[in-house]
Write a structure and sequence with these properties.
The protein is an all-alpha fold. Helices cover 81% and strands 0% of the residues.
């Protein structure tokens, strides 16, 4: 199990306390922490807080400068305004580069320099009335951050670049498909690899999924604007399956940041699967979804299959994953073809019933896995899923009152059994101790 970033820092603090108290030796502490890619000597705890505080402070300084300039903007001569913006950007980035070359510091200066660079683009364009297509300014702002983020291998600059690129994608996406987005996604992946950053890699994957959804929206709405259609659910089902199985493929990696990225992707793709599944426990949602699908010609179907087929291949090869997860992923291509190829009136009720049972079984498996492996996120996800299912069934009584009552009784029985199992396990552990 790969612990997430903040939990690893807490574990390191605890280990240091155990060593100071004489409970374990320093060598034992290092051996424990080495399982999670950290050590007792790492000095990241204090430096992280320092970097966060300094980064926020510099951001506030930059915002204050922008407000002061904006307040007196019209009173400043045009040439002075332009030279002032260019000089400020060059000075901030120059100081940052000097400190980086000197002792690998200065990232805060480069961060503020990046903001100043973007503000200069916008304000100079305003001074000389250059162009009227607002997204272009965001594009060149993000593009200018790419080489700096790559050269200094900075996660913060890469995240700033991705944030600006996302704003560009959303604003440009209203007019044309944002084909250039892979440039920023590829640059972020490269920085994540060089900086050994699992968090940056996961953010990049999430933005890639958003970009693919936007492209699919454009396929539906071409040549006017992107449209949201039911087929997007099929695409996201395939992408979630591919992310889930791909994250398992990262588990045996020798690189700690890839193992952490695999853990995060597995957790969030599982949560995405649960969020996607719950609405379809309502029969009316199933009927509306199936009626909106555009048959076997639906672009969402083929986009989903492009992701679901390699995911099924990974599931066939991965013997370590849970049987239910493997079965769902392996059967997903057939399910997608079934959803798009069968008459909606025939499939709506069976689909609602199957999804309800699937959510129930998924909750049981999550609780069982959480108890067996001691994974609290799985245990609480399973309990939370049961509660959400109960709430949905209470608000939308599919079938009749008796069916809903049976569903509540089954869920209550599972919770009672889980509670008794947990208590028996704890008592057994105390007895053995």
């Amino acid at each position: 199990m790969q612990l997430l970033g903040l939990l690893r820092r807490e574990l390191r603090s605890e280990c240091r306390q155990w060593v100071d108290d004489g409970d374990i030796s320093a060598e034992q502490g290092d051996r424990i922490l080495a399982r999670y890619g950290i050590s007792l000597d790492d000095g990241g705890d204090g430096s992280l807080a320092y970097k966060v505080l300094v980064g926020v402070a510099l951001l506030f300084v930059g915002m204050a400068l922008l407000l002061l300039v904006s307040a007196n903007w019209e009173e400043i001569p045009r040439a002075v305004r332009m030279l002032g913006l260019i000089s400020t950007t060059l000075i901030l980035n120059g100081i940052g580069i000097y400190h980086y070359l000197k002792d690998r510091s200065g990232l805060g200066w480069l961060f503020v320099g990046g903001i100043s660079y973007g503000a200069s683009i916008m304000l100079i364009a305003q001074i000389y009335h250059l162009g009227e297509h607002f997204p272009d300014g965001l594009f060149y702002w993000a593009l200018g951050l790419v080489p700096m983020a790559w050269l200094v291998r900075s996660r913060v600059l890469a995240l700033l670049m991705l944030a600006i690129a996302t704003l560009w994608m959303l604003s440009e996406g209203k007019f044309t498909p944002p084909w250039e987005m892979p440039l920023f996604l590829g640059a972020a992946v490269m920085v994540a690899w060089l900086a050994r950053s699992a968090g940056l890699l996961v953010v990049t994957v999430a933005l890639t999924v958003s970009w693919l959804n936007l492209l699919l929206g454009w396929i539906y709405g071409y040549p006017f604007w992107p449209e949201i259609e039911a087929g997007m659910v099929s695409l996201n089902m395939g992408l979630l399956a591919l992310l889930f199985m791909g994250s398992h493929a990262l588990a045996p990696s020798t690189f700690p940041h890839l193992r952490r990225a695999g853990t995060l992707l597995s957790l969030w793709s599982l949560r995405g699967y649960l969020v996607l599944l719950v609405p379809f426990t309502i029969m009316e949602v199933c009927e509306a979804f199936l009626e909106e699908l555009q048959g076997l010609q639906d672009p969402g179907l083929w986009g989903g299959l492009l992701a679901a087929v390699p995911a099924a291949w990974l599931a066939v090869r991965d013997r370590a994953s849970h049987l239910l997860a493997r079965a769902l992923v392996i059967g997903l291509p057939v399910l997608l073809l079934l959803f798009h190829g069968v008459d909606s009136d025939t499939l709506a009720i069976p689909l609602a019933l199957v999804v309800n049972l699937l959510v129930l079984v998924s909750a049981i498996v999550l609780i069982q896995q959480g108890l067996d492996k001691g994974l609290s996120q799985f245990f609480y996800s399973g309990v939370g899923l049961l509660l959400v299912l109960a709430m949905v069934r209470y608000l939308d009584l599919v079938g009749d009152y008796v069916g809903a009552a049976v569903m509540f009784l089954i869920a209550a029985g599972i919770l009672f059994a889980a509670a008794r199992y947990w208590r028996a396990r704890q008592q057994g552990g105390q007895g053995n101790a």
